[in-house]
């Protein structure tokens, strides 16, 4: 059977690309310009996970407003604009300070523990040890910066900061049930 030479060329090209891809990943990520998906390096992979899983959306001031261009110096330093709902008013924590006070092992327990809305703690709970550890290492690599986020205010309490009302409006006949916060108060 004759194999068309174009097909042979295509196979050789694909093989070449695969080799190039392996070589690139073996080289490992270097610096801020490195490909986000680089898997070989824990910190680079943590940066990738933090970016695609939306941590900056809440924990980095100005991230949403700037279309994802908040300066690295502000990354994960928390918010002073609260989220208000039936749980009271909560503030995305300064994660760069949070990780300073815990070991990797403590982080694995803490990151998976229940937190008040709108923190999607249930998503972190499903992450593998490896992914959570990579996130921890990435946040640690940024170093401590900023101030602690304001303390959460219980429902009906006086709020001294700007806040976003994070409740469905115009419900008409629809009902939405909000799972209420844990009994044991988390930090932050
Ligand atoms: C929708 C907004 C939102 C998103 C997205 C979000 N968080 Fe949070 N996060 C919060 C809020 C609000 C709190 C404070 C909760 C409380 O007071 O109980 C918080 C608290 C935390 C805490 C507890 C910190 C402390 O010191 O108490 C950790 C850890 C955390 N978030 C990690 C993450 C990570 C990692 C991601 C990305 C995978 C993420 N969060 C995404 C809003 C968010």
Structure description:
- With 188 residues, the protein is mostly helical.
- The chain is 38% helix and 5% strand.
- Heme C (HEC) binds at residues 53-55, 57-59, 83, 90-93, 95, 98, 111, 115-116, 118-120, 124, 135, 152, 186-188.
Strand order of the main beta sheet, please?
2-1-3
Order of helices and strands: HHHEEHHHHE
Distance between the termini: 70 Å
Ions, cofactors and other ligands present here are:
heme C
* Proportion of residues in β-strands: 5-15%
The largest sheet, given as strand count, sense and whether it forms a barrel, is: 3 strands, mixed
Low-confidence segments:
7-36
Overall form: globular
Summed up, the helix count is 7
Total beta strand runs: 3
Mean pLDDT: 83
SS class? mainly alpha
The total domain count is 1
Helix content: 25-40%
Radius of gyration over alpha carbons?
A: 22 Å
Question: What labels describe this entry?
Answer:
mainly alpha; binds heme C; 3 strands; three-stranded mixed sheet; 7 helices; 188 residues
Describe this structure in a few short sentences.
The protein has 188 residues and is mainly alpha-helical. It has helices at 5-27, 42-52, 55-59, 95-98, 104-112, 121-125, 129-142; strands at 82-85, 88-90, 163-165. It has one domain (15-165).
